[in-house]
Automatic annotation (TrEMBL):
This is Cytochrome b5 heme-binding domain-containing protein. The chain crosses the membrane at residues 7-26. Keywords: Membrane, Transmembrane, Transmembrane helix. It comes from Glossina austeni. It holds the Pfam family Cyt-b5. It comes from the Eukaryota.
Length: 271
């Protein structure tokens, strides 16, 4: 019994020491484990290879190695998510039209089309874009999700070193939801206030008029041409407005100058 007690005490002591060591060195141990490039190995030229592994966490520098040069796979990142586009080498390979996107996250260029001026710190800064541009990026994201293999995430603006979404990523997704809601509301307004027919001639200037199908919206009423202003009250479109909505407070509408209030067509000149 005494021998057993001694062994038990020794075992307890070992466990206590192990717990202390783990408590002190756990962060460092975890950092070492996290730094191991699972699924990666060195190729003959010393570059990284990922083979079929999906779920990578790549730094910008590591992502840059997958640019198709020297037979490397071709990856691009959009909104911090990495896709393998190697099978479309004729588009993304060296010397090809979209090689600009290879090995980097240049999300903003999907909207601007600027393939010449690359500023790394701003290339994925998408929060400065307007609502239609944000929705366009979401469409691009759906395209890459559908047509290409997802490989992982870029450590940086959208995801942290553990692959968790950052505040920036959460903000972008919130803005995308708001943009979708705005789009829905605009479409509802276009159903209620459809576009006018529009033509222009040198002799008469701009001609706007309403019919039962103007704006591509079939209906059983015609309406009256009015200027319908956007939220900033800076730009307007010609909308056909039903008589019962001519005094609405839902949107800002203004009559065309030198046009009878009950006329279904108007002429005006743009200075």
């Amino acid at each position: 019994m005494t021998i057993f007690r001694r062994h038990f005490i020794k075992l307890q002591l070992i466990l206590v020491i192990a717990a202390i060591i783990l408590g002190v060195y756990y962060p460092k141990i975890w950092e070492q484990i996290r730094s191991i490039n699972f699924g990666k190995k060195k190729t003959a030229n010393g570059n990284l290879s990922t083979e079929n592994y999906s779920g990578l966490l790549l730094t910008k520098e590591q992502l840059n190695e997958f640019n198709g040069v020297g037979g490397q796979p071709i990856y691009l990142a959009l909104l911090g998510r990495v896709y393998d586009v190697t099978r479309s080498e004729k588009h993304y390979g060296p010397g090809c039209t979209y090689h600009f996107f290879a090995g980097r996250d240049a999300s903003v260029a999907f909207i601007t089309g600027d393939f010449k001026n690359y500023i790394e710190d701003e290339a994925d800064n998408v929060l400065t874009l307007n609502s239609p541009a944000i929705l366009s990026l979401i469409n691009w994201e759906e395209f890459y999700k559908k047509d290409y293999i997802y490989k992982g995430k870029v450590i940086g603006r959208f995801y942290d070193e553990f692959g968790h979404p950052t505040k920036y990523e959460n903000k972008f997704r919130t803005m995308a939801e708001e943009a979708e809601f705005d789009k829905f509301n605009r479409e509802k307004l276009r159903d209620k206030y459809p576009d006018c027919n529009i033509e222009w001639s040198l002799e008469k200037g701009s001609h706007v008029w309403c019919t039962e199908s103007s704006g591509g919206k079939e209906r059983n009423w015609i309406g009256y041409p009015r200027k319908l202003y956007g939220l900033q009250n800076e730009r307007f479109r010609c909308a056909c407005v039903k008589e019962e909505y001519l005094d609405t407070n839902e949107v800002v509408i203004r009559p065309y100058e030198n046009c009878a209030s009950e006329s279904q067509e108007c002429y005006y000149n743009v200075n």
